[in-house]
Amino acid sequence: MSRIAYVNGRYVPQREASVNVEDRGYQFGDGIYEVVHLYDGRFIDEDRHLDRLERSLKAIRLPMPLTRAALSHVLKEVARRNRVTEGLLYMQVTRGVAHRDHPFPAQPVPPALVVTVKRIKPYPTSIANWGGNAITLPDLRWKHRDIKSINLLPNILARQAAKEQGAVEAILYEEDTQVVTEGAATSFWIVDEQGAIRTRGLSHAILPGCTRGALMAELQQEGIAFDERAFTLDELKRAREAFITSATSFVKPMLKIDGAPVGDGTPGPVTTKLFEIFARHVKGGAKNAA
């Protein structure tokens, strides 16, 4: 069966899908994207992702391409037409098609919207074989990392460097302060020397991860304390546990960083507990009903 994409108002075979060469997303990276996990036919944390999409679009002065209800319908229809119940849905909004010039088009043009979906492996049943390794790199991205821009070249280079060193993620840090920001494509957490669960607080320095926010809400319901407080590379090296969160990583333990084991080099008890809590959120939360 051919994969179906939604492109600017039409559902088309993905192999035939195309955008104009003067689309500002192609020319300038002038756009926003979102990725949503689809589990058992349900979009996980759909409202969080659409909220973030609206915030990012507003930050770059770009209107929503459709009403929220219409966009939600398109997302579900793309999944339905592709018969995908376990996968990742990608949506991208750009400032549309206009003659190449850095300022916004003099005459407003309709935003461009593309939606695709792909199948992925089932949600992991156990944390035992879910861990990975990471490297650390200076954070070379722009200063508005809270906007989910399609400008991802620094992230790509960081992820490629990680891959070349046999790692799954690059943990980024500010060169001047040695303070950790986040992963190249994930939120990053540690369990510090004192046993506190820590991740950096929201600001322009990091993306407000939807999985991050959903996990925090679950922890609050469970009465588990966490601390939105920055930490340095030195504190990271002394951490008992470390893990990443994202729509594709869920809660994923980092077992080695820069070749050195984190704790004893196995998934720690705190990360294991959080993995189990988030698995329940994905698999059974009423708030995730379609």
From TrEMBL:
Its UniProt entry gives the catalysed reaction(s) as: L-isoleucine + 2-oxoglutarate = (S)-3-methyl-2-oxopentanoate + L-glutamate; L-valine + 2-oxoglutarate = 3-methyl-2-oxobutanoate + L-glutamate; L-leucine + 2-oxoglutarate = 4-methyl-2-oxopentanoate + L-glutamate
What family is this protein classified in? Belongs to the class-IV pyridoxal-phosphate-dependent aminotransferase family.
Q: What is the annotated role of this protein in its UniProt record?
A: Acts on leucine, isoleucine and valine.
Q: EC top class, in one word?
A: transferase
What name goes with this protein? Probable branched-chain-amino-acid aminotransferase
The cofactor(s) it depends on are: pyridoxal 5'-phosphate
Swiss-Prot/TrEMBL keywords: Amino-acid biosynthesis, Aminotransferase, Branched-chain amino acid biosynthesis, Pyridoxal phosphate, Transferase
Q: What biological processes does GO assign it? A: amino acid biosynthetic process; branched-chain amino acid biosynthetic process
> What EC identifiers does the entry list?
2.6.1.42
The metabolic or biological pathway listed in the UniProt record of this protein is: Amino-acid biosynthesis; L-valine biosynthesis; L-valine from pyruvate: step 4/4; Amino-acid biosynthesis; L-leucine biosynthesis; L-leucine from 3-methyl-2-oxobutanoate: step 4/4; Amino-acid biosynthesis; L-isoleucine biosynthesis; L-isoleucine from 2-oxobutanoate: step 4/4
Query: Would you tell me the Gene Ontology cellular component terms?
Result: cytosol
Q: Name one Pfam family in it.
A: Aminotran_4
Q: Which GO molecular function annotation, any one, does this entry have?
A: branched-chain-amino-acid transaminase activity
